[in-house]
């Protein structure tokens, strides 16, 4: 909140702040997905091989979960950042 207030005092617009924070979190989500996908593929593939009827896990399942993570995080971060950026910067810095 204080960082957003300071950015507002220094002249940043609400859209710029939302875009900056959303892109920062998007990078973290991308890194988390790149780490989680191979591990989850290995665990799911090992689990599915224990059944009599074999089944392969497709790439689409991982892509859909990645898109869902990006959309969910983008909406939540955008909403909270916009809400914080809409406040008066003096009120957020004072606290």
Description:
- By secondary structure, the chain is mostly helical.
- It has one domain (2-94).
- 81% of the residues lie in helices and 0% in strands.
- It has 4 helices and no strands.
- α2 (14-48) packs antiparallel against α3 (59-86).
- The radius of gyration is 20 Å and the shape is rod-shaped.
Name some characteristics of this structure.
95 residues, mainly alpha, 0% strand, rod-shaped
Query: Count of DSSP helices?
Result: 4
Cα-atom radius of gyration: 20 Å
Whole-number mean pLDDT: 86
N/C terminus separation: 9 Å
Report low-confidence residues grouped into runs of 5 or more.
none
Helix content: over 70%
Describe the main β-sheet briefly.
Answer: none
Write the layout of secondary structure elements.
Blueprint: H1 2-9, H2 14-48, H3 59-86, H4 89-94
Helix pairs in contact: 2-3
Summarize, please:
The protein is built from four helices and no strands.
């Amino acid at each position: 909140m204080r960082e957003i207030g300071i950015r507002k005092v220094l002249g940043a617009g609400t859209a710029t702040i939302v875009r900056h924070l959303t892109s920062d979190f998007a990078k973290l989500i991308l890194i988390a997905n790149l780490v989680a996908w191979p591990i989850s593929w290995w665990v799911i593939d090992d689990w599915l091989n224990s059944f009599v009827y074999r089944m392969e896990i497709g790439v689409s399942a991982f892509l859909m979960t990645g898109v869902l993570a990006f959309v969910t995080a983008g909406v939540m971060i955008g909403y909270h950042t916009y809400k914080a950026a809409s406040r008066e910067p003096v009120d957020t810095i004072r606290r």
